[in-house]
Amino acid sequence: MTNSSPATAILVIDMQNDTILADGAYANTGAAENATAQDVVANVAALIETAHATHTPVFYSRIVVHPQPGLSGDNAPIFRMLAPDTFRIGSWGAEIVDELSPTATDVVLDRTRMSVFNGTAIDNMLRNLGITNLVVAGAWTNMAVEHTIRDAADYGYTVSVVSDATSSLNAEWQHAALAFALTNIAAITDTESARAALNA
Prior knowledge:
- The chain has helices at residues 17-20, 31-38, 40-53, 77-82, 122-128, 141-154, 171-181, 191-199, and strands at residues 8-13, 58-63, 107-111, 133-139, 158-167, 187-189.
- α3 (40-53) packs parallel to α8 (191-199).
- It is globular.
- It is α/β, with parallel strands linked by helices.
- The longest helix is centred in the N-terminal third of the chain and has 14 residues, at 40-53.
- α4 (77-82) links the parallel β2 (58-63) and β3 (107-111).
- It has a single domain, classed as Rossmann fold.
- The chain is 36% helix and 18% strand.
């Protein structure tokens, strides 16, 4: 077993039942189909397995909707899309999928905004650990993943996005995020390459 650089952390975004499963709230948008096509659960699981083996910190973030109306905001269509019946805190839909259940050493951060850097303490936590490189996986690529990566770059982190460990509402959105929106913000990698880098 090798030890990866302490300068790297893994961030897994919104791998929740409502986000990616066929029984989830957004299955009819194409999200479940794209997650299956990307084999996203298995690829994220492989990435996390290597992170644990190399003592690389793993952060999860979930988007949640609180019972009190209005807490998540309705200033943009995406926030109206999330409420009021999806990602309810404490519900099955808000939970991280069983195959990716966090361990006791992983950090789970809840938020109500798109970016993990907006509404959580992740920046302080990463800096306390001396993290400078962030490897990002999860869903949806063109929404929370993209928002988070842009913020991470603005905060000074070097970011990689794992192309086959991310998924979106459909292949078109996935392609738009990885082939256009993120190309000048993050390095585009894949699960095999990201695991090899952790083991290096």
